Amino acid sequence: MSKVLLWLLIMHNLTVWVDLFLQFLERGGIVQVSILCVSVLMWSLIVQRYLFLSRRFPQRLHAICQDWAQRQEHRSWYAHRIREGMLAELSAELHQYLLPLRTLTSILPMLGLLGTVAGMVNTFDVMSLSGTNNVRGMAGGISQAMLTTLAGLVTALSGMYFVSNLEHRAQFAVQKAAQSLTLVEDEVAEATRDA
Length: 195
What we know:
Helix content is 92%, strand content 0%. The protein has helices at residues 2-70, 77-94, 98-130, 135-194. The longest helix has 69 residues, at 2-70.
């Protein structure tokens, strides 16, 4: 019986939170929905990049190191261009979506500012129709202005930290890949000397 009560309590709390969230979106207007959509896109890309770094990158690095180890020679000009090409390809994969992420984090505060302007326009519309007598109507426009500004800034600030962290990790991963290829090259050279 207690599991049923717990389940009902969780479902009730969930519906309360969903209702609050929908009210938040409604009070912010179409701009708030735009901020939500851009934020979801931004966070999807951020999660995708972290998953790439933690799961796919080690596999790619291992494959590149194996390809490099299978080469017969590593010292010629041609071999160095192949090595640079491998590192450039890996770097492109590591830096994929980082520029769009930077752009999205730049767009979010602008959307918040757009919501501020829309909210203030609503406030001035109320004032032009009813003067300063309709305080409730004016408060709705000011509330819209503040909510959209808050949403745009908070999502942009949180995204900026993670985008900077991803850029740092991508640079570090490229350096790690270069060091790994050098290590493989040294191991192959030592093995051929000993043979």
